[in-house]
Design goal:
The chain contains 8 helices and no strands. The chain is mainly α. The protein has one domain: Growth Hormone, Chain: A. The longest helix is centred in the first third of the chain and has 25 residues.
Amino acid sequence: MLDSSRNVMLACALTALAGYVDAIGYLHLGGLFVSFMSGNSTRLGVSLAAGDWINAGAALTLIVLFVIGAAGGSLIVHSRSKHRQPWLLLIETLLLTLSALSYALGLPVIAVAAIVLAMGLENAVFQIEGGLGLTYITGALVKAGQLIAAALTGGAPLAWVPNVLLWAALVVGAVLGAVAYHWINLAAIWFAAGFALALSGVVAVTVHR
């Protein structure tokens, strides 16, 4: 899935988008995530242990919404259409647009729900290529470490670079998301929607290459 410059660039762009959106969600929800479900699962466990049913319920709700989004994305992948990736990104754009509109209309709960669905959906983009999680980065860092070890023992010397680029893209996206949120709150999702729309167009053009 990271075997071509096209896929590496697309994966980095989508990971940056995930970092951007997750930073916004993290700040808005006071420590919960809209794309990092490992963090939410830990928060769920800690909240249950403390008897904090409100935060436990919030974390579980986010996890369920994320799974629904991922399932929806997989259904699109199973359609076998040549344009699965552009369609996935276009639907992600629509969900992010719904989120931004909901915030503008004073419906923050719907805004957050749409964001989480969009992030779950995004993970299906590289299911087409054999599987690559885009909204969490632990797997990429583990793979980078494994490939560094392989390079030190005679393997490809730079095979680890794309995975480190994914991590860097997430961090850069998170920085931009935090800055945008402090500037205009959840309205910052408009930029994410615009970026997702641009990516859907680029992918539609390059899908046959």
